[in-house]
Automatic annotation (TrEMBL):
<dbReference type="InterPro" id="IPR002744">
    <property type="entry name" value="MIP18-like"/>
</dbReference>
<keyword id="KW-0547">Nucleotide-binding</keyword>
<keyword id="KW-0408">Iron</keyword>
<dbReference type="GO" id="GO:0051539">
    <property type="term" value="F:4 iron, 4 sulfur cluster binding"/>
</dbReference>
<dbReference type="GO" id="GO:0016226">
    <property type="term" value="P:iron-sulfur cluster assembly"/>
</dbReference>
<dbReference type="Pfam" id="PF01883">
    <property type="entry name" value="FeS_assembly_P"/>
</dbReference>
<dbReference type="InterPro" id="IPR027417">
    <property type="entry name" value="P-loop_NTPase"/>
</dbReference>
<keyword id="KW-0150">Chloroplast</keyword>
<dbReference type="InterPro" id="IPR000808">
    <property type="entry name" value="Mrp-like_CS"/>
</dbReference>
<feature type="domain" description="MIP18 family-like">
    <location>
        <begin position="62"/>
        <end position="133"/>
    </location>
</feature>
<dbReference type="InterPro" id="IPR038492">
    <property type="entry name" value="GBBH-like_N_sf"/>
</dbReference>
<dbReference type="InterPro" id="IPR019591">
    <property type="entry name" value="Mrp/NBP35_ATP-bd"/>
</dbReference>
<dbReference type="GO" id="GO:0046872">
    <property type="term" value="F:metal ion binding"/>
</dbReference>
<feature type="domain" description="Gamma-butyrobetaine hydroxylase-like N-terminal">
    <location>
        <begin position="419"/>
        <end position="489"/>
    </location>
</feature>
<feature type="compositionally biased region" description="Low complexity">
    <location>
        <begin position="9"/>
        <end position="19"/>
    </location>
</feature>
<comment type="similarity">
    <text>Belongs to the Mrp/NBP35 ATP-binding proteins family.</text>
</comment>
<keyword id="KW-0411">Iron-sulfur</keyword>
Length: 509
């Protein structure tokens, strides 16, 4: 670079434009030019360096996420990155440090140790990584759909019904031991004894406080506790067993369930009363049951009653995830005996397509634990019965996670396609609907006269370009859609499946 300088004089090698003597600290013009040039170059270089550093950091994060995407969640069938498990990722490639958090769907995840080991291994295998810092957590306890739920139920992730529809088959034993198994797996658990006529919970557990307390300010019920599990039963209300008609019982159950301060729970296990009447229907309508566990015994008579219960849950869109066949057999003299016959449990599985069957033996200790106030899985955590309940607990956790995932993504709106995507749980079929078609098929009283059946909502009343603002699941059977015009619509899955479908779906370019 050629430096510009003023014409020289005989007295000085440099000429200064102000023709004044140069002060001691005054710099020559060429020096000022050089500094000026560097002052304009340096910020650019710094910007380029910062940009390169940002690119390097982004590349390093992508490397970490690509490594973690090798880990597949066996329940969802997709990688943990796509599942949204990876949180708070922080990468410092210069120091070779990586930190992140794995947020699982439940603290009772049966494969959390496997996730932790695999995540550490795949990230540490990156050539530039020197140190991996990883923590494990679980999502806050929240139901898939919290809208319109009573306040005290809005912090419960999963509600499990344990049902037999027949008395005397050991349903309460299964409910209590399942609850304590889930708690042993790391979950926050509560038990609700819904049998007002013959509550079993006060006999099966031994809380220090045998009476429910009231919060006078909030007018709510404070549950009692035993070994960290929250408990509510009419038997803890100081009333013993109820003598009242069905509508009164339904009201009592509603009050006990919805006004209790449950707090944050991962699982609330409901010990359902026998039958398929008002009480059972009330429970299914008041709360969005995540799943049901069916309890039976080997006798044919038990199967007949259990079948009624399974059909009831099917109509209410509550998936039955497991069958527990109690009092199956006992071992003596090196032989296995089946005193009540065989086949009821497997018949339920085969006839109704319930995927998992668990068998409980006739065991004096199991029966005694129901009367002693100490659950069998607590009294003998390494025994055969506890191992069976551990398998049942793992099944319930995995199935509930899959159900919640399916329900939360069953109906979504694709803005690029301008279409509503539907994939009903337990169905392999996926299809698309035009938003206006869904809106025009509303069957509420605002759109159809309840008495005459006359269609009040006309075709032209719904614009072709209408779009949903929000789609939220309602239990396991429907979605609530809020439209841009402010209208709120409840669309059951059964109804969505009968609507005219989009054949040529416009693709996002």
């Amino acid at each position: 670079m050629q430096l510009l300088r003023a014409p020289c004089s005989s007295s000085s090698p440099f000429h200064f434009s102000n023709s004044q003597p140069r002060g001691r600290h005054e710099r020559p013009a060429w020096v000022s030019f050089r500094d000026s040039a560097w002052s304009s170059i340096t910020p650019k270089a710094a910007s380029i360096q910062a940009s390169a550093s940002a690119v390097s950091s982004q590349t390093a994060e992508n490397d970490v996420l690509k490594s973690l995407s090798q880990i597949i969640d066996p329940d969802f069938g997709t990688d943990i990155v796509s599942c949204g498990f990876v949180k708070d990722l922080n990468v410092n490639k210069a120091l070779g440090e990586v930190s992140f958090r794995l947020e699982l769907t439940t603290p009772a995840c049966p494969i959390k140790d496997m996730f932790e080991q695999q995540a550490n291994e795949v990230v540490a295998a990156l050539p530039w990584v020197k140190r991996v810092s990883m923590t494990m957590s679980a999502r806050p306890a929240r139901p898939v759909y919290a809208g319109n739920l009573p306040e005290n139920l809005q912090t419960i992730s999963n509600i499990i019904a344990v049902s037999s529809c027949k008395g005397g088959v050991g349903k309460s034993i299964v409910a209590v031991n399942l609850a304590y198994t889930l708690a042993g797996m790391g979950a926050r658990v509560g038990i609700f004894d819904a049998d007002v006529y013959g509550p079993s919970l006060p006999t099966m557990v031994s809380p220090e406080n045998q009476l429910l307390e009231m919060n006078p300010e909030k007018r709510t019920i404070i549950p009692t506790e035993y070994l960290g599990i929250k408990l509510v039963s009419f038997g803890f209300a100081g009333q013993g067993r109820a003598i009242m008609r069905g509508p009164m019982v339904s009201g009592v159950i509603d009050q006990l369930l919805t006004t209790t301060e449950w707090g944050e729970l991962d699982y609330l296990v409901i010990d359902m009363p026998p039958g398929t009447g008002d009480i059972q229907l009330t429970l299914c309508q008041v709360v969005p049951l995540t799943a049901a566990v069916i309890v039976t015994t080997p006798q044919k008579l038990a199967f007949i009653d259990v079948a009624k219960g399974v059909r009831m849950f099917s109509k209410l869109k509550v998936p039955c995830v497991a069958v527990v066949e109690n009092m199956c057999h006992f071992d003596a003299d090196g032989k296995r005996y089946h005193p009540f016959g065989r086949g009821s449990g497997s018949q339920v599985v085969e006839q109704f397509g319930i995927p998992h069957l668990f068998e409980l033996p006739i065991r004096p200790t199991l029966s005694a634990s129901g009367d002693s106030g100490i659950p069998e899985v607590v009294a003998d955590p390494q025994g055969e019965v506890a191992r069976t309940f551990q398998e049942l607990g793992i099944c319930v956790v995995q199935q509930c996670a899959k159900i919640c995932q399916q329900v939360s993504t069953a109906v979504t709106y694709d803005k690029g396609m301008k279409a509503i995507r539907v994939k009903v749980p337990d169905s392999v079929e996926e299809f698309y609907l035009h938003p206006a078609t869904v809106r025009r098929n509303d069957r509420s009283a605002q759109s159809v006269d309840e008495w005459t059946g006359e269609q009040k909502l006309q075709y032209a009343d719904v614009p072709e370009d209408i779009e949903p603002e929000e789609i939220r699941p309602m239990g396991n059977y429907a979605v609530s859609i809020t439209w841009a015009d402010g209208f709120s619509q409840i669309a059951p899955y059964d109804q969505l499946q009968t609507m005219e479908r989009l054949i040529d779906v416009p693709q996002l370019i």
